[in-house]
Design goal:
By secondary structure, the protein is α/β, with parallel strands linked by helices. The protein folds into 2 domains: 125 residues, Rossmann fold, CATH 3.40.50; 153 residues, LpxI C-terminal catalytic domain (Cytidine Deaminase, domain 2, 3-Layer(aba) Sandwich), CATH 3.40.140.80. The chain is built from 12 helices and 13 strands. The protein has a 6-stranded mixed β-sheet, sandwiched between helices. The radius of gyration is 20 Å and the shape is elongated.
């Protein structure tokens, strides 16, 4: 089961939260507030959870780079966490301000290369402005997946064999900065994650039912990539991931222990139990997780 750990870090410093979409930003904000830490949320219009507006916040539009930095300075937020998913904006939704044009050379550099290099440059951009970038896992460590079964259901020996293969596949993908997830069933790689993301990969798997896969089998394996900038891009799963994995006909989900966030963990586990899926945390560098998972159950 997920454990409620103590929040780490210096809680006396104001925290700036640049919030994307999904459930994780609100969970991180609530964890920071519960610790007594002052904070200020910078939320994107049309993308961020409405619940964030219950906290001190500033609404942003795409392209308002100067407003981001000015707001962080004005509110005294030297520590910054970037969390949540971001949708690509429509061209008409972008409202560049003076700070956007001032930082245009850096922004052009940000757009070059794969995800890992882009996100590393994002961190360096904030650091160049005098901020310290911290990870969502530093603010809300209870959201990090632990080792072993997260709920009551456990993987079978066949599932563990698929997990071991999935770990090898995801490591190979990650070395090329391609993706961080794969679906494996009965020793076959059903799908690998690319630019479309985990959700779309699982939707592709669901269509395999049309090819004769009648019974539930296989696993979703999700890990971080080698050298991935976990402060701004730690992989995550949540209730929606569980629902899509079930719709894809999989039996469970294996994630890298200590390196994957679980959004809304209670609801995720309740959803997994109701759909008959196991969720387990494994060592992403261990190709033989069999005995260890059994012993930790």
């Amino acid at each position: 089961m997920l454990q409620r750990n103590q929040i780490s870090g210096d809680t006396t410093q104001p925290l700036g939260v640049i919030a994307g979409g999904g459930a994780l930003p609100l969970a991180v904000v609530e964890a920071a507030a519960k610790s007594g830490r002052s904070l200020h949320v910078l939320a994107f219009r049309g993308n961020s959870d409405a619940g964030l507006r219950a906290f001190p916040h500033t609404m942003m539009r795409w392209g308002e780079i100067g407003k981001i930095f000015q707001t962080l300075h004005r509110t005294g937020c030297k520590d910054v966490v970037l969390v949540g998913s971001l949708k690509r904006p429509q061209l008409m939704d972008i409202r560049p301000d003076g700070g956007f044009f001032y930082n245009l050379p850096s922004i052009f550099k940000l757009m070059q290369g794969g995800d890992d290099s882009v996100l590393s440059r994002v961190v360096r951009l904030f650091e160049s402005k005098g901020f310290r970038v911290v990870g969502a896992h530093d603010i809300a460590p209870h959201l990090v997946a632990p080792r072993g079964p997260l709920g009551q259901l456990q993987p079978s020996a066949k599932d563990l064999t698929d997990i071991a293969l999935g770990l090898k596949v995801v490591r190979a993908l990650g070395a090329l900065d391609v993706g961080q997830a794969a679906a494996v069933s009965r020793g076959y790689v059903l799908a690998v994650e690319a630019a479309e993301g985990t959700d779309e990969m699982l939707r592709r798997c669901a269509r395999l039912h049309q090819w004769g896969l009648k019974s539930a089998s296989g696993v979703l394996v999700k890990c971080s990539k080698p050298g991935q900038e976990l402060r701004v891009d730690m992989p995550a799963i949540g209730p929606n991931t569980v629902e899509l994995a079930a719709a894809a006909g999989l039996r469970g989900i294996a994630v890298a222990a200590g390196r994957v966030l679980v959004a809304n963990p209670q609801l995720m586990l309740e959803t997994a139990e109701s759909l008959g899926l196991f969720v387990v945390g494994v060592d992403e560098h261990d190709d033989t997780p069999f005995e260890k998972i059994s012993n930790e159950a």
